[in-house]
């Protein structure tokens, strides 16, 4: 019988330490970081033979991994070692009993060994192998003391639940995400989609416009190209994405809903790159060191050639998108690094159509109209944003770090070629992290953001045109600012970790002013090594905002006042057998002076510009229960289950009612399995309840209307993915992927059109009926070729 192949990887380190450059500190011995729990680096698919990778890992004062870079080693082992160590958790290094941040070196060994046949088991079988696989690939032995210790800085991620954080190794295996980290965020419980396939979500009852997006500390106006497109940041540049749904750290503010925070991959001191070619677009990333490894330069981007595909299909609508990212970093010494991060995105949709009467009259002047009228290109939607961020990172002697940064940005959106909005952003920030004692970590910061808006209005067709007047009130040219300071402290009190914090923000728009004072507190109770209780409470303040975030578009002059929310959550996490993590969280959010045109009036997304409720205010609340189970998708058999049971309510105009996007049940189930021979397949099932339906009122007593159901039908879809991967040489790899979002071609009912008729004496007619209004099917198939070195 042919023996099955098993993979094993072990992690070891030599025992030496080097003190900091401070002569006074040399007398104090450095206790290196200690790994908490076992690691499981999996032998790379398609690889052959044994290998080792030497990795430099920066462990922060809070025990999190700040950076991980390869010192020695080849692909695909190097990437697998980085992926494993990036999500590890450590007890921080200490000096004189005080926690310090440190850079340590670890060696990761990979061995591919043959398992004995079933009839001849080994004399010493592996300890407690999980039943779903013959052995645990990559079980890691606890490392000894690291070989080198250098003082660095660190930053904690607090308030992230079981299914609320995902790294790139798992994103690659999630069906329907297309390898984009941002497309994986809706697998977290607490996310309620507006409509299938469109990446706009309610987060614990907060509308899409109340969710903030950050990439490596820089504010981003949106995450995806034109709704259905890929992420605006190249996936290979995103190391980790965390979802904060409420009660988040004081570092995040000016949003009354959730926050999506992504961290960039740390600079690498080796040449590497990768590329992806799909039917609709292509992208690439390359990074190279310079100055003997002290510096690093990176460039990446993506370009869509969908316009050509639309032309081949003889479609009158065309779509185009592209993005870019660039980064240059240079280490001035062991304690100082300067870097420049630039990125941006562009989206454009247009349609060929016949000109209207006003356009023909303007073109002909006083002469006759032309007999032959040619189609013209009309812009349906166009948006772009650009960011340039200059930063200086300094590490203090004895621990702690500081970052000083400045950002320039430009945003622009045009809708239907008639109006455009622009924003020139200038921002500066200061971030500090400083250990006060072994039990206290202080984090503080301050920032200022100035936005200069310019907007064009629709042409005035009549003196009393309400659309023009409304747009002048909302999209007026003016200067807005937001400035504030914040501080919190991570208090480690034995088996209890408490993080109290406070934010103070001041807002201005033209002559209007507003302030926000937002206290917050989060706590972890380590009941046992495998059972934790979590609490998070806080207030959050946000300026008025449209329900959908678009570059350069916001509500002027703080119309109606600031939005505010009170966020509460309590739950637990359990490390179960078979490397499964379980969690449950109960939450309650209260909203005040909320801008939610979608949730209060059932306005369609495409109708937002014309909606009279854009600046209307409401109050509301959302409460529910979130359940999650997860086994890393990068394992041979990995998966996740995320379920949300919730209720979302609004109060406006003296009445209380369900939010128009209240969905009581939302379920995500994903599985990924290594089929062997470098084949991997997976599927994802998505289910959620329909939305409430509000019937129209008769215009008069003699009119009757059709009666729709109380809710639209529930929606379900299946996403599929399969990949074949090859290893090329020592550092190269190549793969073919076939993936589909909504492979079941499911359509979603978004509402009903109901008939109406008059009641006439002596005439009997059948009652009017209602016809379902369907959206979709929104199906995104993808065939891609990906490779790297």
Q: Please provide the count of β strands.
A: 43
- Overall shape: globular
Quick check: average pLDDT?
81
The largest sheet is: 22 strands, antiparallel, barrel
Stretches with pLDDT under 50, minimum 5 residues = 1-27, 114-158, 603-611
Describe this structure in words.
The structure is a single chain. The strands form 7 sheets. The protein has a 22-stranded antiparallel β-barrel. Strands 1, 2, 4, 5, 7, 8 and 9 form a 7-stranded antiparallel β-sheet that branches. A 5-stranded mixed β-sheet has the order 10-15-16-13-14. The N terminus is likely disordered. A hairpin with a 2-residue loop joins strand 27 and strand 28. With 789 residues, the protein is mainly beta. It has 6 helices and 43 strands. 5% of the residues lie in helices and 52% in strands.
Describe this protein with a few key phrases.
mainly beta; 52% strand; 22-stranded antiparallel beta barrel; 6 helices; 789 residues; seven-stranded antiparallel sheet
Reconstruct the topology from this structure:
Layout: E1 5-12, E2 30-31, E3 34-35, E4 51-59, E5 65-72, H1 77-86, E6 90-91, E7 93-95, E8 98-114, E9 150-152, E10 165-167, H2 168-171, E11 191-195, E12 198-203, E13 212-215, E14 218-219, E15 238-244, E16 259-264, E17 272-278, E18 281-290, E19 295-304, H3 306-312, E20 317-331, E21 336-353, H4 357-364, E22 376-395, E23 401-415, E24 419-437, E25 440-455, H5 466-474, E26 478-493, E27 496-509, E28 512-526, E29 531-542, E30 563-576, E31 580-594, H6 597-601, E32 618-631, E33 637-652, E34 655-658, E35 665-676, E36 679-688, E37 703-705, E38 715-728, E39 732-741, E40 748-754, E41 756-758, E42 770-775, E43 780-788
Parallel strand pairs: 13-16
Antiparallel strand pairs: 1-8, 2-7, 3-6, 4-5, 4-8, 7-8, 8-9, 10-15, 11-12, 13-14, 15-16, 17-18, 17-43, 18-19, 19-20, 20-21, 21-22, 22-23, 23-24, 24-25, 25-26, 26-27, 27-28, 28-29, 29-30, 30-31, 31-32, 32-33, 33-34, 33-35, 35-36, 36-38, 37-41, 38-39, 39-43, 40-42
